[in-house]
């Protein structure tokens, strides 16, 4: 792949990393055996996040499963991950546990779940690119492809609630879904999404995915990324020109700019969203429709910002409607 041509305009000001003190060699015997045994067991609501991050099965990328730009306490458990996901609601602890166990099971069964999108040289030149990559939620071989982008106000990446659950559900439906971990910042995030699109097109045969009429998904800031790449394309963000997506799937974002180049677009939002006005989203979808492009929106009564999959609430099932919209507008 070609080297990224654009320089990020918005950089992170502060970088937080969860730290873990490793035992000294003097006590390596019994403790290391206990930890080895623990890695064979399934995660639970009481499993510490740091134990997942440092699980040997995720060597090299465990830190990216959770937001690297949020402070993660030593005692934070999977059941309490919602505590660090600011601006989000309806975080499902059971889904967090399911995702962590899914990832572990995939690796232990010999599957690769994480892919770098930048070369070692590119990461050495820009160390922020160390904290990027794609998590692969496998569907059927040669099935259609979705790229899912979590929000987080361009301050952090809320993947455990805003992209991993959607990607997992898509994989259960047979689709090949990739959750992007990007550099926070509107410009850098779009550059990373453009690189991810390039990576998947260049490696489609090896990954056994169909990238024709791929879809871009996103919540909040991630929805803006999906919409911007859907309208402006990869060349606008430093990559070669690759095909535009077949559909954009947006959740709860107040984007207002309509270029006239939007692909078919599905959106959903709650009426009590204090960050993304449902009326603004209705107007956005209406203007896309006026341009002759297929678009639809679902508005859910009483929901606040960041409801994710919407399991057990009025939004439950929106992802099925979004998939149907994608399929209906890409000829299948």
Topology:
Blueprint: H1 28-39, H2 49-53, H3 93-108, E1 114-115, H4 120-125, E2 133-137, E3 143-149, H5 159-162, H6 164-172, E4 176-181, H7 186-202, H8 204-207, E5 209-219, H9 221-232, E6 247-251, E7 265-270, H10 278-290, E8 295-300, H11 318-328
Parallel strand pairs: 3-4, 3-5, 5-6, 6-7, 7-8
Antiparallel strand pairs: 1-2, 2-4
Give your account of this protein's structure.
This protein has 332 residues and is an alpha/beta fold. It has two domains: 25-96, no CATH class; 114-328, Alpha/Beta hydrolase fold, catalytic domain (Rossmann fold, 3-Layer(aba) Sandwich), CATH 3.40.50.1820. Helix content is 33%, strand content 14%. The protein has eleven helices and eight strands. The protein has helices at residues 28-39, 49-53, 93-108, 120-125, 159-162, 164-172, 186-202, 204-207, 221-232, 278-290, 318-328; strands spanning 114-115, 133-137, 143-149, 176-181, 209-219, 247-251, 265-270, 295-300. The protein has an eight-stranded mixed beta sheet, sandwiched between helices. α7 packs across α9. The longest helix has 17 residues, at 186-202. The two termini are 31 Å apart. The model is unreliable at 1-38 (pLDDT under 50).
């Amino acid at each position: 792949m070609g080297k990224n041509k654009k320089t990020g305009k918005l950089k992170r000001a502060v970088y937080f990393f969860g730290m873990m003190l490793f035992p000294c060699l003097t006590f390596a015997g019994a403790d290391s055996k206990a930890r080895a045994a623990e890695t064979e067991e399934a995660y639970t609501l009481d499993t510490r996040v740091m134990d997942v991050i440092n699980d040997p099965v995720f060597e090299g990328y465990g830190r990216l499963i959770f937001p690297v730009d949020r402070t993660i306490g030593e005692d934070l458990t999977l059941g309490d991950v919602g505590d660090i996901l600011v601006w989000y609601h309806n975080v499902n602890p059971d889904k967090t546990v399911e995702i962590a166990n899914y990832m572990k099971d995939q690796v232990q069964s010999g599957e690769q779940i994480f892919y770098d999108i930048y070369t070692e040289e590119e990461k050495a030149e820009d160390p922020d690119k160390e904290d990027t990559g794609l998590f692969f939620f496998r569907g059927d071989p040669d099935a259609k492809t979705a790229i899912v982008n979590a929000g987080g106000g361009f301050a952090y990446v809320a993947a455990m609630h805003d992209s991993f659950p959607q990607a997992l559900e898509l994989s259960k439906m047979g689709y090949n879904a990739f959750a992007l971990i990007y550099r926070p910042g509107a410009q850098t995030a779009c550059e990373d999404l453009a690189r991810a699109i390039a990576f998947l097109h260049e490696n489609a045969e090896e990954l056994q995915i169909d990238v024709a009429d791929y879809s871009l998904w996103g919540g909040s800031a991630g929805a803006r990324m999906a919409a911007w790449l859907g309208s402006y394309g990869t060349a606008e963000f430093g990559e070669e020109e690759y095909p535009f997506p077949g559909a954009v799937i947006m959740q709860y974002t107040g984007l207002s700019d309509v270029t006239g180049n939007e692909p078919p677009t599905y959106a959903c939002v709650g009426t009590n969203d204090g960050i993304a006005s449902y009326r603004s989203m209705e107007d956005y979808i209406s203007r896309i429709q006026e341009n002759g492009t297929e678009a639809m929106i679902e508005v859910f009564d009483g929901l606040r910002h960041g409801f994710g999959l919407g399991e057990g609430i009025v939004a439950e099932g929106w992802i099925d409607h979004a998939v149907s919209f994608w399929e209906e507008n890409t000829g299948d």
